[in-house]
Amino acid sequence: DDMDVAASGVPSRTVPDPAAVEEVVSMLNTSKRPVLVIGGGAVAAGERVTQLAERLDAPTTLTSNAKGLLQAGHPLLLGSYMSCSEVAACVRDADVVLAIGTELGETDYGFDGDPPFETSGTLIRVDIESEQTTRNALPAVALTADATLAIEALLGALGADAAQKEGAARVKAAHAAGTMHELEPRFTRHHEVLQAVRAALPDAIIVGDSTEPVYFGQSHFATDKPRSWFCSSTGYGTLGYALPAAIGAKLGAPERPVVALTGDGGLMYTVAEMAAAVEAKTPIICLLWNNQAFQEIKHHMVAAQVPPVGVELHAPNFIKLAESMGWAAQHAATLDALPNMLAEAGDSEGPTLIEYTPATFGMPT
């Protein structure tokens, strides 16, 4: 009774300054090798991002939180991992970089130890917070505005005719010189798993923990719509994040399938949330990569010639554990079994755990 619960006024959306828009458009029109860098701050702009990329004929890189603003396979989509050599080179060699709704920080583009954002061209930044436009990388022009309103203003000022700046050819050349083929099989094998999720549950939200399949997906998996991928594998790299975050995602978007992509080590950090998922009546899917180790840490220990300590896990039987919590649970003995299991889990009224292991791929570890 002592608390005032009256709603306060909602701040209006920040409109871009017309003079700044004119300056930005002039730079973009005279550029020869423009690149777009789009962050999660632009996620509400939806199809306008694709329209802007096509209008400018600009290769476009998306941060983790912006995945899906250009559909997978779009000819102007560079990728969503700035530290991949082909993406970094394209951004570095651009004559104008337009960055919208991104901090240009470590958690946007890479993992711990990856090089920071770099370009030799003119940097233009658009952000709703004025102070953010000068953090991590100083721009030649800063536009303080709501991302959607800024993109709409740019589209209006650019006109209807699409530029011809060999954007698709630059993306194709970058991918041809890319790093996908350089990745170890322990990473690339998860491409088939993520493709199985996409095929069986095309509208899925994938919530990633700190685990091998998420490391691969963060850098090399594209979604077909925004708000479909978020994870904890950059920045603090919090183990155990995926399961409780997936419960929250399902409560927030009950009409969409939600997949928690986690490892055995990560799941053990928040395994009690399996009971919470049942109590909250959230029919999420836990896709569990069980390699019985903190394998990434172990890999780095071995590479550094340090005896592996504390990385071999004594884990429970996750199938029985899940069933004891009121979950349905299955083990995928082969990759071919995954699509049907995922589709059935997507139709279930309760949560489902699907476990896969190195043996699923016919590999020892």
Residues in helices, as a percent range: 25-40%
Distance between the termini: 60 Å
What series of H and E elements makes up the topology? HEHEEHEHEEHHHHEHEHEHHEHHEHE
User: Can you tell me the number of structural domains?
Assistant: 2
CATH level-two architecture of the largest domain:
3-Layer(aba) Sandwich
Q: Main beta sheet, described?
A: 6 strands, parallel
How large a portion of the residues is in β-strands, by DSSP E? 5-15%
Could you name the CATH class of the largest domain? Answer: Alpha Beta
Uncertain segments: none
CATH topology of the largest domain: Rossmann fold
CATH fourth-tier homologous superfamily of the largest domain: Thiamin diphosphate (ThDP)-binding fold, Pyr/PP domains
Average of the residue pLDDT scores: 90
> Can you count the beta strands?
12
Using the alpha-carbon principal axes, give the shape.
Answer: globular
Main sheet: which strands, in order across?
A: 3-2-1-4-5-6
Describe the 3D structure.
By secondary structure, the protein is α/β, with parallel strands linked by helices. The chain folds into two domains: 18-178, 3-Layer(aba) Sandwich (Rossmann fold); 183-361, Rossmann fold. The protein has 15 helices and twelve strands. The strands form two sheets. A six-stranded parallel sheet has the order 3-2-1-4-5-6, sandwiched between helices. α4 (106-109) links the parallel β4 and β5. α3 packs antiparallel against α6, α8 crosses α9 (212-220) and α8 (190-200) packs across α15 (338-346).
